[in-house]
């Protein structure tokens, strides 16, 4: 487990937005063509109180941060042979985890290309077609949700790989946000 750039996160008014941008910055430092990464989000003040050793290991024992700060903790590597939706359906978080986040890279096409998508393609054929399309864009999506329903996301295009070009918003990747929120659903 590792903390995504402890104590150096970008400034943002909302703690969830700060966490999303911190994770995006961490993922950016790893470069492109990375596997999906999953993070638990925990309350920093609570972590310092309940797990001082872990907080120290993550560089969070200095204090001085607001009590509402969220600490992202990277989880074990995701299984490469399992689709993300199937993997996420197997997750159950302990009570101390108040949210989760995921970074994932995808190819996307602009809305103008929608009319040119060939019909009757299976998923693998469609993925190959998108990968060869001249207007494709590589994007890294960082999506976070909290148990209380709050959501946020950051999008970074590979061709505009700069912290000043990161787009944030609550409704940017609703499908992934829904899948992450489902990991907190109770039966």
Shape: globular
Tally of domains = 1
Number of helical elements = 6
Low-confidence stretches: 1-10
By secondary-structure content and strand pairing, the structural class works out as alpha+beta
In whole angstroms, the N-to-C terminal distance is 28 Å
Q: How does the major sheet shape up?
A: 6 strands, antiparallel
Share of helical residues: 25-40%
Query: What is the helix/strand order?
Result: HEHHEHEHEEEH
Mean pLDDT: 83
Strand content: 15-25%
Radius of gyration, rounded?
A: 17 Å
* Strand order, largest beta sheet: 2-1-3-4-5-6
Total E-strand runs: 6
Structure commentary:
The chain is of the alpha+beta class and 187 residues long. The protein has one domain (15-182). It is 28% helix and 24% strand. The chain is built from 6 helices and 6 strands; from the N terminus they run αβααβαβαβββα. It has helices at residues 15-30, 44-50, 52-57, 84-88, 123-132, 174-182; strands at 37-43, 70-74, 97-108, 137-146, 151-157, 167-169. It has a 6-stranded antiparallel beta sheet with strand order 2-1-3-4-5-6. It is globular. The model is unreliable at 1-10 (pLDDT under 50).
């Amino acid at each position: 487990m590792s903390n995504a750039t402890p104590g150096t996160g970008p400034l943002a008014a909302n703690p969830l937005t700060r966490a999303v941008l911190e994770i995006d910055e961490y993922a950016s430092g790893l470069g492109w063509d990375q596997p999906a990464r999953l993070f638990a989000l925990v309350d920093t003040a609570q972590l310092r109180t309940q797990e001082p050793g872990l907080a120290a290991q993550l560089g969070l024992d200095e204090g001085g941060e607001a009590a509402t700060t969220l600490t992202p903790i990277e989880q074990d590597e995701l299984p490469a042979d399992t689709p993300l939706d199937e993997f996420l359906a197997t997750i159950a978080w302990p009570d101390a985890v108040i949210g989760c986040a995921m970074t994932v890279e995808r190819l996307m096409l602009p809305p103008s290309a929608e009319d040119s998508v060939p019909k009757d393609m299976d998923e693998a054929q469609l993925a190959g077609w998108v990968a060869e399309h001249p207007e494709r864009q590589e994007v890294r999506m960082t999506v976070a949700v909290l148990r209380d329903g709050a959501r946020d996301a950051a999008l970074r295009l590979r061709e505009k790989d700069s912290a000043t070009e990161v787009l944030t918003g609550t409704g940017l990747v609703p499908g992934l946000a829904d899948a992450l929120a489902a990991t907190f659903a109770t039966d």
